[in-house]
């Protein structure tokens, strides 16, 4: 069951993002010369190595909306395929797919924290097509079935699921 579900989700992600346009070399990260932009420049999401996905998993927040849209499938697929090998990537991925926690948002604002704002989040997720949104939603809905032992990312997963059910 779980292997069939995993394959179904992989296929849906690959199909949904097959024609997603490359954002352009200067539209990957929020800075033209930031580390993520330099690492990903000229590389299709299908060609990102697992090492790059793991190394830059904590940097999803610095991608432009177009860069996030284009490279997200590499991160989704890495978690699906290599869950036990990708360290903190599931937490970072769930965090990037969830709106800011309203209980923590004021605390972040007071400290001038770099954590993303509601407007940043909405800007990042507004560029997805209906087909891409459906693949993200299916990934999130299947996550608990595939990884019932996952506990660290549950708080973010719950917020992400609540958002993507209606996105």
Report on this structure.
With 167 residues, the chain is mainly alpha-helical. Helices cover 59% and strands 0% of the residues. The chain contains nine helices and no strands. α1 (2-16) packs antiparallel against α4, α1 packs antiparallel against α8 and α8 (130-146) packs antiparallel against α9 (154-164). The model has no long low-confidence stretch (mean pLDDT 89).
Indicate the low-confidence ranges by residue numbers. Answer: none
Strand content: under 5%
The Rg value, from CA coordinates, equals 15 Å
Helix content: 55-70%
Q: Classify the secondary structure makeup into a structural class.
A: mainly alpha
Enumerate how many helices there are, as a single number: 9
What's the order of the H and E elements?
A: HHHHHHHHH
Largest pleated sheet: none
Overall mean confidence score, pLDDT: 89
The tally of beta strands, per DSSP, is: 0
What is the domain tally?
A: 1
Taken from the alpha-carbon principal axes, the silhouette is: globular
Give the termini distance in whole angstroms: 27 Å
């Amino acid at each position: 069951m779980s292997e069939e579900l995993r394959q179904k989700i992989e296929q849906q992600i690959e199909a949904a993002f097959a024609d997603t346009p490359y954002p352009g070399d200067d539209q990957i990260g929020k800075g033209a010369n930031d580390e993520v932009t330099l690492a990903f420049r000229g590389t299709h999401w299908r060609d990102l190595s697992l090492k790059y996905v793991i190394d830059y998993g904590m940097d999803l927040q610095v991608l432009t909306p177009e860069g996030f849209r284009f490279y997200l499938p590499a991160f989704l697929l890495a978690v699906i395929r290599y869950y036990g090998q990708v360290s903190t990537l599931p937490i970072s991925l769930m965090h990037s797919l969830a709106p800011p926690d309203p209980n923590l948002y004021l605390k972040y604002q007071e400290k001038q924290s770099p954590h993303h704002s509601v407007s940043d989040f909405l800007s990042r997720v507004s560029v997805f097509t209906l087909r891409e949104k459906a693949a993200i939603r299916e990934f999130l809905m299947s996550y608990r079935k595939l990884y019932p032992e996952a506990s660290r990312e549950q708080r973010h997963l719950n917020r992400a699921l609540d958002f993507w059910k209606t996105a």
